[in-house]
Specification:
Elements lengths: L8 H30 L7 H5 L1 H23 L13 H20 L9 E4 L2 E2 L4 H8 L5 E6 L16 H9 L2 E6 L6 H18 L6 E7 L1 H15 L8 E7 L7 H13 L6 H7 L4 H5 L33 E7 L20 H4 L17 E4 L11 H11 L1
Parallel strand pairs: 3-4, 3-5, 5-6, 6-7, 7-8
Antiparallel strand pairs: 1-2, 1-4
């Protein structure tokens, strides 16, 4: 079999466009620092733009735009990448890029932006009854959706020779489908799209639906909760089939690293010499800033400056009623202690956040004691493959 390429021909154009955008952005930052150093009082010298400095910066911009123009000429000549086989390395690179800059990629119509789809073995499913029957051969009435986390992709459910979806398909007869999405978009945007996609999938499912289950890792759990809300709000049929919802290391109440990053960015804006560098911190995607508190709804961010230092203003969203919801939290500690003191948890998500615990009772999620588990000596990525995680999931499904 021919090995899938690490890069497609069209990727060269897409990465080239992104590189020119980056060059222009960095040039703006350097020029702003130069101006601030030259005129610390905030004044402006008209000669700055026409002098040597202005000529240099404008020349950089001019050359960069010429390169960008050349790339736009090449774009129509490149073969389409849709359904083209990709190597796992390329998939991982593009997924990470979408996590960091996904909203920007969409806003600039960059072909590297991931479009949401349901996949198997890295190939998008055609959501049509006959095609699903042939591709899934044979599909069962027990549907399992797996939703990956920030900067990841559906292929990365396969880790260290294990895949939770494949294991449940083999042991309990589930038919696993894998969500592939742009994690740089707002969680609520992905939630709305997933709600519509699930309605279409179950409407075209080739056999009668017995049950639907979802496993969400990290951001994937937030997107799943958001999708259930928007699907219910829209009167969709699929939410009534949802029986189990399992969260693996999901930051229900946010992750401290994003809160720290936001604080650092705000501090940079205090000093006039570092204000230009604050722009660099603001390239991070909407998906990342949603992880500050675990925002699920459009109302949580619309009309607000997502980079401003602000309190948690989320609208409380309880767990889906009538659905068996389970949460696994990991901790890098070797023993399990007081979860409220375990602020780093699995290295990215605190234990309390993964278990839905919050100081405000209205924000806390009502996981029953038998539906939650803390697993020691484990990091955020171990949740995808550790035998202890698989055993716990298997018991909850059994």
């Amino acid at each position: 079999m021919t090995k899938a390429p690490h890069l497609h021909p069209a990727d060269l154009v897409a990465f080239g466009r992104l590189a020119t955008d980056t060059t222009l952005g960095v040039t703006d930052v350097v020029e702003a620092v130069h101006r601030q150093a030259a005129f610390p009082s905030g004044g402006r010298d008209p000669a700055f733009g026409t002098g040597i400095a202005g000529i240099v910066y404008n020349s950089i911009r001019g050359v960069t735009r010429l390169v960008e123009g050349g790339l736009s000429v090449l774009t129509p000549l490149m073969p389409p990448t849709k359904q083209r086989r990709s190597s796992p390395e390329r998939e991982a690179l593009v997924a990470a890029l979408n996590g960091v800059l996904g909203d920007y990629l969409v806003g600039t119509n960059n072909p590297l932006a991931i479009s949401m789809s349901l996949r198997r073995h890295g190939r998008s499913l055609e959501i049509e009854r006959g095609a699903l029957q042939a591709t899934l051969s044979p599909p069962t009435g027990k549907v399992l959706l797996l939703a990956h986390g920030l900067c990841l992709n559906d292929l990365q459910w396969q880790r260290k020779g294990h895949d939770h979806g494949a294991a449940l398909a083999s042991e309990l007869g589930y038919t696993a489908v894998y969500l592939h999405y742009n994690t740089g978009l707002h969680v609520s945007e992905n939630g709305c799209m997933l709600a519509d996609l699930m309605e279409k999938l179950l409407g075209q499912w080739p056999v009668p639906i017995e049950e639907l289950a979802i496993i969400g890792h990290s951001m994937g759990g937030l997107v799943s909760r958001s999708a259930y809300h928007y699907g219910t709000e829209a009167g969709h049929d699929w939410p009534r089939h949802l029986r189990r919802l399992i969260f693996l290391g999901v930051p229900h109440h946010g992750a401290p690293l994003e809160r720290i990053g936001n604080w650092v960015n705000a501090m940079l804006e205090i000093n006039p010499y570092t204000i230009p560098f604050a722009r660099l911190g603001k390239i991070r995607s909407a998906g990342i800033t949603d992880m500050r508190h675990g925002s699920l709804l459009e109302q949580d961010w619309k009309g607000r400056d997502r980079f401003a230092l602000a309190p948690d203003v989320r609208i409380p969203l309880p767990l889906p009623a009538g659905v068996q919801c389970y949460a696994i939290a990991a901790t890098k500690r070797r023993t399990i202690g007081d979860s409220s003191h375990d602020v780093l948890g699995d290295g990215l998500v605190p234990v309390d956040s993964a278990l839905g615990l919050h100081r405000n009772p209205e924000m806390s999620l009502a996981f029953s004691k038998t539906h939650q588990q803390i697993l020691p000596n484990m990091n955020h990525w171990d949740l995808l493959s550790h035998p202890a995680v698989n055993d716990r999931i298997r018991r909850w499904f059994g």
